[in-house]
Structure formats: C-alpha cells, structure tokens
Amino acid sequence: MLSCVCGISLYFPIFGYLSKLHGSYGPVVRLWLGPTQLLVSVKDSSVIKELLTKAEDKLPLTGRTYNLACGKLGLFISSFEKVKSRRESLKLFLDEKLSVGSIGSSFKIIQVVLDRIDSIIARDFLDCRSFSQHMAFNIVGSALFGDAFFDWSDASAYEELMMTVAKDACFWASYPLTPFWKPDYRRYRAQCAQLKILTQVIVTKSRNQNGVLSFIDHSSHQRSERTINDPCRGVSHVDGVISRPLNEAAEGPLSSEEEICGNIMGLMLHGISTCANLIGNILTRFALYPNLQCQLHSEIVADCSELSELKLDDVLRMKFLLATVCESARLLPAGPLLQRCSLQQDVNLNSSITIPAGAILVVPLYLVQMDTSTWGDDACQFNPNRFLEKNINLEEILGTAHKGSNGINLFTNECDETESFLPFGSGSRACVGQRFAILGIAMLIASLLRSYEVQPHPALSKEMESLVDSNSLHHLPNPKIILKRRSI
Ligand code: HEM
User: Fold this and answer.
1) Beta carbons of 199 and 144 less than 8 angstroms apart
2) Which is the closest atom of ligand 1 to the Cα of 422?
3) Bridge partners, 127 (sequence order)
4) What confidence category does residue 356 fall into, taking pLDDT thresholds of 50, 70 and 90?
5) For an engineered disulfide with 106, which of 97, 147, 171, 439 has Cβ 3.0 to 4.6 Å away?
6) Cα 308 to middle of ligand 1, angstroms
7) What is the position in ligand 1's atom list of the atom closest to the CA of 338?
8) How confident is the model at residue 461, as a pLDDT?
9) CA of 423 to the centre of ligand 1 (A)
C-alpha cells in the first residue's frame, strides 16, 4: 500500500499531500488554501456518500472549462439547479439506448470499425492510445447521432479537433483573466469555434436523416415497442426513433440551438476522453497479461456462439468481462480527486460537521479505491475476481435495473455496499453515462477478443515485461499493439 501511494504521489503531488494529512488527522481533513478558501477532503466511505449527495454543485472552474470550450451549455456546469433536468432526460435517453432490442444498433458501430481494422492491421501495428480514442469516439458519437454518424465525411476531422480541444480545455480555463492577447489562446478559441460548426453540421445531419420517423411521438416505451416489433423496419429505424430523445435530452424544455450544440460538445469531450482512457488501460493489460485475455476469451466463447451476433444479453452474462472493466476503472479513475461544492448553502453532515458554502470539497479517489480495509491487502493489484466475490456486489456496482436473460438483476438502484467504488462518482452529480460506458466498453472488448488476440509489438515486449509486476500500472505506457486475427 505504501509503495503504491508513494508511486502515485510522484504524479499527483496533491494526492500525496492529502494522503499524509489523512494519515495524521483521520478521514475528514480541513485545509485553509487562503484566508477565504477552505478545502475539505473526505476519505471515510459513509461520509463520502452523504457528502456527494448533499453537495450538489461542481467547482466553478469545471463549469468555466466546459463553457470556454463549448459555449452555453446545460450539463457539466457548476450549478446543480441548472443541470438537473438535462441530467434526467439524458439518463432516459441513454437507458433507452441500452434497452433490450436497441442494443444491437447502439453498438453496431463497433463491428463497423472493427471491420475497417483488418485493412489497417494488415500493414503494421496500432498505437494503443489512438485506437482507444477512435473506438471511444465512435461509440459515443454513434450513440448520440445514430446512423448519421456512420457515413459522415468530416468524422476524422471532428475527432482530431475534439481531442485537441479536450487536451487544452483545462489549461485555458484556469486563467483567471482571459488571455486574449496570447496567440495560442486565440488559436484554441478558433478550434473551439470550428468544433462548434462541425457539431452543428452533424446535429443537423442526424436530425434530417432521422426526421422521417418524427411522426412517432408517443411515450418512449411505446416508441421502442412499436419499432422493435415491426420487422419491416431496419436497425437504422430503431436508431432514428431513439435519436428523437437525443434532442429532448440535449434540448430540455427551453433550449436554444446554441445550448443543444454545447451540451453535445460537452458530452463528446467528456465521454470520449474518459472512455478512451479506460479502453486503453484494458488493452494495455491484455498486452501485459496474455492469461487475462485467454480467460476472457473462454468466457466470451462460452456465452456467445461463434456465428451469432453479439448481444447485450450475452455481455450481461459475461461476469468476468464486466468485472475486468470495473476493476480497470477502479485502478484508473478519471482524475485523482472527485470535486464538489455547495455554492449557496452550508452542508451539514450527520457526523455533525458543518461545511461552509463555497468550500472546495474533494474525495481523494486513489486513497478510497485503494484502501486496504475495503479492498483487501491486494488493493493496489489488478484482480477482477474481487468483483465476483460475495462481499463486493458486481450487480450493485453496475447500478440501475436491467435484467439480463439469465434472470439475474445485474443492475439495481440500491448500491449500499459500493460507496468505495467511485470512478464514476456518486450522488447528485454522479456520471450519467456509467452504465452506458461500462456496457459499451464491455461490448467492444467482447467483439474485439472474439476475433483478435492483442499482442504487444515485439520491439516493446522487453520494456513491457519490466512493468508486469510493478505498481506503476496506473500510469500504463502507450504500447504499440498488434491485433492478430484468431484462427477459427
Ligand atoms: C469510462 C467512462 C466514464 C467515466 C470514468 C466517467 C466519469 C465521470 C465522473 C467521475 C463524473 C463526475 C461524477 C461526480 O462528480 O460524482 C462524471 C459525470 C458525468 N458523466 Fe461521465 N464518465 C464516463 C463516461 C461517460 C459517458 C459515455 C457519458 C455520456 C455520453 C457521460 C456523461 C456524464 C455526465 C452527463 C456527467 C454529469 C454532468 C453533470 O452533472 O453536470 N460519462 N463522469
């Protein structure tokens, strides 16, 4: 545990510092950053749950980052009041994407992209980071824009621009005064403007392409049933139907066109970078641990026959696969700290602690997710089996009701035992895309391993070997990987 904490502290000085403070002062640490700025770090899992539910706002810097990149938007910004309704409609939209029947179309992009890979891998190797980013881009993009995304000629330019903006967004937002005199800043703003134009293009294309189905405006439940039960309608029609709620999700009741674009840009920026990180992390583990791949491949073969199309129900049966995705997310949270604040009111915790309005509240994710008292002595090690053991409930961790064909209710709303699993946050601002991301990534991994074996590029094998037993796995390298087609 100690070596792990020290290793991480090299990368995240704030995390190392908080680790020391928690060691000396216990699970709740208060730290004055300046005469008027209090930081409160919480490490105790029961207090965390309460804190993340009661402190509903995000730090103003988060909102500024998204505003600067995306313009006006109604998601990801600081005030909970302003994001509440958008969060709810987005959740409905994503749930519908994952409803039985529409799943095939939601993730059919995976097969489309994998089919294209054959031509690339015939040449040489893949760069793990770019491949993960490309897959994440396609999964999130096709979920939001439906079939219109598949044949969009500007998709590559959009992906490249999206990643450039994502990389620089925090940096430029951190300036207290807009540095408009800096040429780099002006270039960044021009890139954001270009990104917005392309977003508008794909939103319009998506609307036009799916507009033929706009006659269906019953409740979402009726809509799905009608379409799915109608064999005359192709898969793209299912996508068309569920892209209508996209507008509802992004628009809410009173949105302007600018806000719709902003929300979609925000979702793309967040969804792609987080999903790409997790996919890249899992692929790198495959290159490092061939046995992990073998175990997953056996499960995939056992749960889905070779010739049939992979379905959500199949993936829901693949518990070791789902556990692998969760375990990778546990070891690689999107950032070292979850951050919150309460802009207007003090937060009163049951433990009789009062936190003043405006204080910066943080949860040091690495400390919580690698706490040996919760996760065991091997907390720093990669061990998907921990999610299959009795004391950690995978079904609860995956959240919200969704019945697989095995009858197991894999997703329930009650997650009492899961306060220490926080890669997607928790409480009032928890990630709305958690279930979509876990299942989308599981779907991708299952599709990939069915046909390919992931191998490190021979030139890198030696370097990778030295990493296998080290704790530096949280900062995995970006290996060149080879996808070798499996012989049938
Ligand atoms: C591996 C993938 C992902 C990870 C690790 C991740 C992680 C997170 C985290 C840590 C938060 C903040 C939670 C908190 O403060 O409690 C968050 C918020 C959010 N995420 Fe994700 N996320 C992922 C994918 C996605 C996807 C694919 C979508 C949707 C397409 C999405 C939509 C959102 C939204 C809408 C919010 C909340 C925004 C708000 O309340 O303002 N996420 N995510």
Assistant:
1) no
2) 10
3) 480
4) very high
5) 97
6) 32
7) 15
8) 61
9) 9
User: Are the beta carbons of 289 and 281 closer than 8 angstroms?
Assistant: no
- Can you give the pLDDT at residue 219? 35
Distance, CA 322 to ligand 1 centroid (Å)? 18
Angle between the N-to-C axes of helices 155-173 and 183-210, in degrees from 0 to 180, rounded to the nearest 10: 140
Q: What does the block give as tokens for 282?
A: 């899992």
For ligand 1, atom 41: residue with the closest CA: 76
- Section 64-86 average pLDDT: 93
Q: Give this complex's ipTM.
A: 0.99
Pocket test residue of 70, 96, 106, 274 for ligand 1, highest count of atoms within 8 A of CB? 274
State pLDDT tens for residues 219-240: 333 343 333 222 222 233 323 3
Do the beta carbons of residue 72 and residue 259 sit within 8 Å?
A: yes
- How far is 365 from 331, CA to CA, in rounded Å? 9
Q: How far apart are CA 105 and CA 112, in angstroms?
A: 11
What confidence score (pLDDT) does residue 223 get? 40
Q: How far apart are CA 474 and CA 367, in angstroms?
A: 13
Of 156-165, 236-245, 262-271, 424-433, least confident by mean pLDDT is 236-245
Q: Which atom of ligand 1 is nearest to the CA of 429?
A: 40
**Contact (Cβ atoms closer than 8 angstroms) between residue 252 and residue 89:** yes
Q: Report whether 131 contacts 172 (CB < 8 A).
A: no
Only one residue has tokens 């590029």, namely 457
Q: Are 306 and 41 in contact (CB under 8 A)?
A: no
CA-to-CA distance for 481 and 130, rounded, in angstroms? 11
Q: How far apart (Å, rounded) are the C-alpha atoms in residues 293 and 472? A: 20
Task: Tell me the two tokens of residue 168.
Answer: 């620089």
At 360-396, the pLDDT tens digits run: 999 998 888 888 888 889 988 999 998 887 656 666 6
Look at 233-237, 242-246, 328-332, 471-475 and tell me which has the smallest mean pLDDT: 233-237
Question: CB of 363 within 8 A of CB of 49?
Answer: no
List domains and CATH numbers for the chain.
2-485 (1.10.630.10)
Q: Is 431 annotated as belonging to a binding site?
A: yes
The reported pLDDT for the residue numbered 156 is: 93
pLDDT at 442 over 70: yes
pTM of the full predicted structure?
Answer: 0.86
Q: What are phi and psi for residue 278, nearest 5 degrees?
A: -70, -40
Note whether 40 and 355 are within 8 A (CB). Answer: yes
Kindly give the pairing relationship between strand 360-364 and strand 37-42: parallel
The three-state (H, E, C) secondary structure of 323-357, written as one string: HHHHHHHHHCCCCCEEEEECCCCCEECCCCCEECC
Which residue in this structure is represented by tokens 């959009």? 158
432 C-alpha vs ligand 1 centroid, how far in Å? 6
